[in-house]
Amino acid sequence: MQYSGKRGMVRGFTRVVSLAIGFSAIIATQSANAQNDLGNIANGKGVLIGYSGNWGVLGHADVQNIVSTEGNTFTCADLNTSVMTAAYQYDYTLPDRNVNNASPLASNLSGYLVPGWNNVQNGSSVYWPQWWMNQASNANYVGEMKDYIHNVMSKYKSRVKIWQVVNEPIYPHWADYFTGSSDPFLSHGFFGAGSGAADDKLAYGGWDSSIVLSINDNDNAAYGESKTEAFYNMIKSLKQNGYPIDAVGMQLHLQIKNGALADFYGDPFDLTGFAANMQRYADLGVDIYITEFDVQVPTSPSQNDLNQQISAFWNVANVCVSQPRCRSIILWDTTDQNSWLSANTPALYTNPTGAATATRKQTYWYFRDGVINSSRSSAPIGTTMGLKSAVAGGYYATVDYSDSNNWMRVKQATTVGDWEKMAVEDAGGGMIALKLNDGHYLSCDTNNSARLRDLGATTVNSWEKFTWINLGNGNTALKANTNGKYVQCNLNDGNILEANAAKIDTWETFHDPPAAPLMPAALKATAGSSGTKKIALSWNASAGATGYFVYRATSSAGPFSQISTPSAASFTNTGLTAGVTYYYKVAAGNSSGISSQSAAVSAKAQ
Fold first, then answer.
1. Could you tell me if 496 and 407 are in contact, meaning their C-beta atoms sit under 8 angstroms apart?
2. N or C: more exposed end of the chain, with fewer CB within 10 A?
3. pLDDT band at 53 (very low <50, low <70, confident <90, very high)
4. Can you give the pTM of this predicted structure?
C-alpha cells in the first residue's frame, strides 16, 4: 500500500447529497454480553467482516481474541512478502507463520498475490523482491511469475479462498488504465501466458470453484473521480475480454478533515456516490470486497471530529452490507496501537496497556449497529423449512396444538411435518417472519415469558419479526424483535422456545436443514405419436431436490391434482384420452419442504 499525489475530478460530475446522518440520530446499543457478537452478526447478514495483520501481530493475545470472536475472516498480510528469494526459489517462512496462526482463528482467509504494474514502477519491494523488479522489462519475468503464482496458490489454496490476484494496478496513473497488452501483471496474473486462450489459463482458476479472484486498488471507491472511473473502465474492459475476475477490491482509508468525512487525500467523500459506484460493479456481475477500511481523526480531535468518525463507521457499514454484492469488510487493523495510523486512532478497539483483551471503542458499537440495521438478510426467504434443536434430543420444533396455548416446543419430531413446517418470509429491515402451516405467523408472546406460540396472527407486527443469524455449518440462531433476545429451547420449561437469552450458546442453536429446493425450470410437455395416448414431461433438475411432484388438469385454470412423485426430472403420463389437451405443473421437494409449482405447460394426447 503506497500513497502520494493528488487526483483530478471527472469533468461534469456533480456530487449528490451525502448520506451522513447526525450524531443524535444514531442509537448504539451496548450489550453487556456481546461475546462473539460482531462475528455472529456478520454470519447472520451473510457478509465477511474481519481484520488484517501479519504473523507478529497474531502473536498478541488481544488480537487473537478480536480475530476469533469479533469477525469471520482475516487477511494474511505476509503471503506476498519476500516469498521468491531467487528465480524459481521460495521461502515460505513468513506466510506459513501467518496462515498457520490465522487458520484456527478465522474460517475465511484472504491474501494478496501479485503486485500491479505501479508497484514495480515505483519500487515497491515490500510486495516483490528487488532483484525481480529490476528485470521486469525482461522476458524472464513471465515464466517466473507463472511459477510463483502456481506455487503459492498450490500451497495455500485449501486455506486461503479469497485472492487479491493483482494489487494496485493503475496507481498513480490516474487517467489511464492498463490491459493485458500493456500491463503484464494483469495479463499474466489471470492468464498463464497472457493470450487469454482457454487452455492457457492458470490452473488455479479451475482448482476450486470457491476461490475468489479479485483486482484490488486504492482510491477507487468515490464515484466520478478520475481514478475511480479509470478503474471501473478497466474492470469493464477486462470482463468483456474474458478475464476471470470475480470481484474488485476497494481500499477505503477515510479521514475526518475540517469536521467532515473525506478520503485519504482530503477530498470530500460522498456516501451516495460510493453506493452508486458499488451498484455499477454489481450490474457488471462483479462482487465488491472492502479490503482495507479505517477512519482516522486529527491527533487532537474535537468532539465533532469524534462524532463524525463514529457516524462514518455506521454509514459505511450500513451502505456496504446493504449492497447484496458487497461480500466483505476488512478493518485495517485491529487496535489503534497496531494500526499504521496509530496516532490518528482509526480502529474499532484500543489497548494502550497491552492487556489480553482490548477495549471496544464507540466506533465498534456504531460500526456494529450499522451492520445490524442494514437492509440485508441471509435468511432463506421464500423457502419452507423446520428448526432442529441442538439440545433436547435433536428433534424439530413443533407447534403443540394439543396444548391450548399453542406453544412452539421441541417434542419428538424427527421429520418436518405439518406442525413443524414454517415458510420464511421477508419482514423488511433485514428481519423475517415465520409463517406456520395453518397460515398464521409465529409470535413472540412478551406477556408470557417471551415464549413462541401460534397466537393466530395473520399479519406481521413487531411480535412476529425475528432476525435470522447464520452461524455457519448448517446452524442458525433467531433473535426476537420485541426484546432483542435470542430464542432458546428452555429445558426447564417443557422444551418451549423462549426469546430470553442474552447470547448464543448450545440452547440457542438450531440446525438449519437444507432449504426447500427452487421451483423446477424449463418444464416441457411432448405428446407421443398417434395412438400412443401419452405425454412425456421433462424439466431441469432443481439443486437439493430429492424428488418431484407432478400435477395435472384438463383446464389451464385447474384444478390441478397430484398424479405422480418421480425421483428424476422426467415423467411420462400414459393411458390418456386422445384428442384431450392436458395441462401440467411440477414442484420440487426434499425433507425441508416443497417448492412453488412451475408455470403450466400443455400438450394434446394423440
1. yes
2. C
3. confident
4. 0.61
